[in-house]
Structure formats: structure tokens, C-alpha cells
């Protein structure tokens, strides 16, 4: 039977072309972005997992950055602490030189001038050492956010030489304010350093500097331990972030081999459907022959 009101073949060819265009568009979108799950309809059951893994990877990378910043912060403290330690080593050397009776008054005065000038640098270094505009040597512990409400705390000693409650323990190596006071508040700058006026005072000064060096050694050892612990945490988080990203990639990234094959197939089908649509439309022209 020959009819003209409804061209079934042409309609089927047109429907095939419409569906095939959707396949081509999807393949081209995936190939151009590298992402398989760009929209919820691309994978309703898996897009939530994919986005969750992406979020975990991003937050883990942010935690790694936080830890690296904290390591930089602590290294800044340690570098300044090393400078103070070098100053005190020179002060101890001067104190030893001032102990001997062969040092005359003028020589002892010169040694004392250098000793006091060096001592004045301690709190200057503490006051001037900052990270991102924040003083880092005044006993404020460092709290590092690592995501999901979790934090890591790194203790930072108070490096100020003046007595400041229990914070003064760095000055003499004492573990409490009372012990520090008993040690004579060795580096309370309001009372200045011990004067090297005679051999006995020079001996007392040397003892105080020795105590301070011991305290600084303990503080720098703690800094080193905290830095190593943070670096280990960062290394473990790097592995975790890599795993999150790898899993997300496996779920949501486009397979270029498969998508290229799908696009090639869709293009061939599109060309064939276009040809068949033309044939289906031309087929009805034979009806005109019956009317002649």
C-alpha cells in the first residue's frame, strides 16, 4: 500500500538521527573536558561518590598546605633560635675570658661592653622574628587544621629572656617560674645581664649563660621533633590525597579510547541515517507517477 500522509521510514530515520546526535554530543563533551560525569544524568548512581572523592582530595591537599606552612613557621623559629644560640656561645666565651686574673680592668671593661651588647640582641631577635606578620617566639602554640574538625598542635616555647610566668623557663632551662626565679632570672633584661666587673661575677655570668644554652638546646630539640612529625604527617596525607584522586579519576574521568570509538560509530550512523532519510523522503515521489 502506498500512502503519503505518514512517512514511517522517514520518521524512523529522523528519530535515529536525533538519538544519534545525543550520543555524538555526549562523546564530544567527554572528549573535550576529559570528564565522564559532568552532569547528574551521566551517572546518577555514582556521581555522588565521584564528587565526594573530589572533595576529600581537595580538603586533604589543603591540609597538606597547612602542614607545610606550619613547618615553615617552626623553621623560622628554629633559625632565630640558632642565631640566639650563637650569640650565647660567644657570650660564654667572653665570660670565660673575663674570669682570669690576667685580664686587666680595661680589657674586662671591653669584654663587658661586648657581652652586654650581645645580650641586648636576644629580645630584639625574638621581637623581630615573625611569620606572615605574626610573632612566632612568644610561646603561642601552633594549631594546624587537617580537615574534618581535626587539628595537630605543635608546642612553641616562649623565647623571651625576661621573666614571664612559666614562660621564662627558656631563659635558664628551668621548668617552672619558681625554679627560674631560684636560678636568679638569668636573662631578665630589666635587670640587665650579669656584669663582668670581676672574676667572680664573670663566673656567675658563665653559669647563667650555660644554663640558657641548655634550655635553648632542649627547645630546639623539641622544634626538630615537631618538624619531623609534621613532615611525616604531610607525607601520609600526600599518599591519601593521591588515592582519593586516583579513585575519583577511575569513576569520573572519560575513557578516551572508548569515547573516540563511540564518536566514530555515531558519526557513521549519523551519515547513514541522513542518507536513509533522504531516500525515505524521495520514495514518496513515486506516488506522482501514478497521478500522471
How would you describe what is shown here?
- Helices cover 69% and strands 4% of the residues.
- The chain contains 8 helices and 4 strands, in the order αααββββααααα.
- It has helices spanning 8-33, 47-99, 105-128, 169-172, 177-182, 199-252, 256-283, 286-291; strands at residues 130-131, 134-135, 142-145, 151-154.
- Mean pLDDT is 75; it is low at 163-192.
Keyphrases for this structure?
69% helix; 4 strands; two-stranded antiparallel ribbon; rod-shaped; mainly alpha; f41 fragment of flagellin, N-terminal domain; 2 domains; 292 residues; single chain; 8 helices
Question: What is the topology?
Answer:
Elements: H1 8-33, H2 47-99, H3 105-128, E1 130-131, E2 134-135, E3 142-145, E4 151-154, H4 169-172, H5 177-182, H6 199-252, H7 256-283, H8 286-291
Antiparallel strand pairs: 1-2, 3-4
Helix pairs in contact: 1-7, 2-3, 2-6
* Percent helix range: 55-70%
Identify the CATH class of the largest domain: Mainly Alpha
Number of helices: 8
N- to C-terminal separation? 18 Å
Summarize the structure.
69% of the residues lie in helices and 4% in strands. It has 292 residues and is mainly alpha-helical. It folds into two domains: 8-34 and 255-291; 48-251, f41 fragment of flagellin, N-terminal domain (Up-down Bundle).
Amino acid at each position: 500500500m502506498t500512502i503519503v500522509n505518514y512517512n514511517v521510514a522517514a520518521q524512523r530515520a529522523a528519530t535515529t538521527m536525533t538519538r544519534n546526535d545525543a550520543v555524538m554530543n555526549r562523546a564530544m563533551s567527554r572528549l573535550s573536558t576529559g570528564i565522564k560525569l559532568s552532569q547528574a544524568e551521566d551517572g546518577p548512581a555514582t556521581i555522588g561518590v565521584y564528587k565526594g572523592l573530589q572533595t576529600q582530595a581537595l580538603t586533604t591537599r589543603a591540609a597538606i598546605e597547612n602542614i607545610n606552612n606550619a613547618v615553615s613557621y617552626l623553621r623560622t623559629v628554629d633559625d632565630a633560635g640558632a642565631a640566639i644560640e650563637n650569640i650565647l656561645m660567644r657570650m660564654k666565651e667572653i665570660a670565660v675570658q673575663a674570669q682570669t686574673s690576667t685580664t686587666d680592668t680595661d680589657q674586662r671593661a671591653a669584654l663587658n661592653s661586648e657581652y652586654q651588647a650581645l645580650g641586648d640582641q636576644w629580645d630584639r631577635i625574638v621581637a623581630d622574628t615573625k611569620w606572615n606578620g605574626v610573632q612566632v617566639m612568644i610561646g603561642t602554640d601552633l594549631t594546624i587544621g587537617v580537615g574534618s574538625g581535626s587539628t595537630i598542635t605543635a608546642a612553641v616555647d616562649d623565647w623571651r629572656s625576661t621573666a614571664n610566668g612559666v614562660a621564662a623557663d627558656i631563659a635558664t632551662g628551668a621548668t617552672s617560674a619558681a625554679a627560674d626565679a631560684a636560678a636568679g632570672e638569668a636573662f631578665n633584661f630589666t635587670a640587665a645581664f650579669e656584669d663582668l666587673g670581676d672574676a667572680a661575677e664573670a663566673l656567675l655570668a658563665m653559669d647563667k649563660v650555660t644554663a640558657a644554652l641548655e634550655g635553648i638546646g632542649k627547645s630546639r630539640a623539641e622544634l626538630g621533633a615537631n618538624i619531623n612529625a609534621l613532615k611525616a604527617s604531610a607525607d601520609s596525607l600526600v599518599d591519601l590525597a593521591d588515592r582519593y584522586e586516583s579513585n575519583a579519576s577511575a569513576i569520573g574521568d572519560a575513557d578516551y579510547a572508548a569515547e573516540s570509538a563511540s564518536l566514530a560509530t555515531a558519526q557513521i550512523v549519523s551519515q547513514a541515517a541522513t542518507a536513509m532519510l533522504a531516500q525515505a523522503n524521495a520514495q514518496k515521489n513515486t506516488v506522482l507517477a501514478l497521478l500522471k
